Request: fold
Amino acid sequence: MQSQEAIKPHETLLDAEEMVLNMGPQHPSTHGVLRVILKLDGETVTDLDCDIGYLHRGVEKIAEHDTYQMITPYWDRLDYVAAVSNDLCYVEGVEKLLQVEVPRRAQYLRVALTELQRIASHLLWLGTHAIDIGAVTVLLYCFREREEILKIFEDFIGARLTAHAFRIGGLQWDAYPEFVDRVKEFLKMMPTRIDEYETLLNSNRIWLSRTVGIGVLSAEDAINLSLTGPVLRGSGVKYDIRKAQPYAAYADFDFEIPVGENGDTYDRYLCRMAEMRQSLSIIEQALDGLPEGPVMAKVPKIIKPPVGEIYHSIEAPKGEIGVYLVSDGTGKPYRMRIRPPSYINLQALKKMSIGHLVADVVAIIGTIDIVLGEVDR
Reply:
C-alpha cells in the first residue's frame, strides 16, 4: 500500500491546494472582453487558458450577404484602433481579384495614412501598457500625440477612430491642400516626443523590473506559434511583410526592420519604439515623393470579380492581417475569411506566462497588444 506522501500530487506553496482564478472578462488589464482562466500555486501561474467569443459579431458570415463595397466598413471595426490598416488589407485583396491597378498617387497616400495609423496604434499600446504597469504619465503623453494624428484623420477621412479611409480602386478623396504641411509638422515634432517616452521608461527601475526577463519567447517558439508583428520581431526574427512581400508602394521606400535579442517584454517595447521612428521616415519619403495624378482607378459601380480566390495580407501594427476571398462571379463574395494578428498572437499567452506571477500576466497581455474586436470578429 502506497503512503500518503507517495500519492501526493506535487509540492505547492505552504502545502496549499492549487487555485483557479478568473481574470476577466471585465478586468481592465485584459484589454477587452477576454477571460483568462488561471491555475495558480500561490501567486505563480502553473496553467492558463483563454476563453474568447464575448464580442463575436459574425463578420465573415455577414460578408456573404453584402456587396464588396458594403463589406469595407466592417473591417474598420475589427482592430478598431487601426481601422486604416484593416481597410488597406481588404481593398487590396478585392483589387487583386479584379486585377485593378491603383494610381501611384493613391498608393503613396495609402502608405502615409497607414504609417500614421501604425504610430497611433503603437501610442495607444504604449500608454495602456504603461498604465497597466503603473506609469500614468506615459498614457497622458501618448494620448497628446495620438490626438494630433486623429485630427489629421478627421480632416482627411471624416472620422477619428473607425476611419473608413480607402475605397476599392484607390481613395474617395484626394489629399486636402494643407494635408502635406500638417503631416510634416507632426513629423518634425514627433521624434522629440518619442525621446520623452524613452527618457521616462528606458532606465526606470520599476519599468525594467516589470519587463526585463518577463514573458520570454524564443525565436523557435514564436515561429512555431505562427506569431507575427512586433511579438515575432521581439524574439529576433527579422520578418516584416512590407519587406518580404511588398504591397502598396512600400518597395519604393528605404526603412529598417527593428528586432530584439532576448524575446522578453522589454525587447518588444524597444521594437515598437523603433518602429515608430521608422514609420516617421516612411511617411516623410512618401510625402516628398508624392506623385501627381488621379487617386481612383476606373472601377465599375457594381463590382463582380471573376471566379477565383485570393489571399492577401499586410503588415498591420499588431502583425499580419490577411483576407481570404472566394469569388463566384456575383456581386457578393462566396466566402470571406480573416486572418487577424491579435487572435493568432494570443496563442503565445500561455507559453509566456507559465512560471510567472499573476502581476506579470498583466504585463504579458499588454506586450502582445491585442484588441478583442479582432480576436472575436
The radius of gyration is 22 Å.
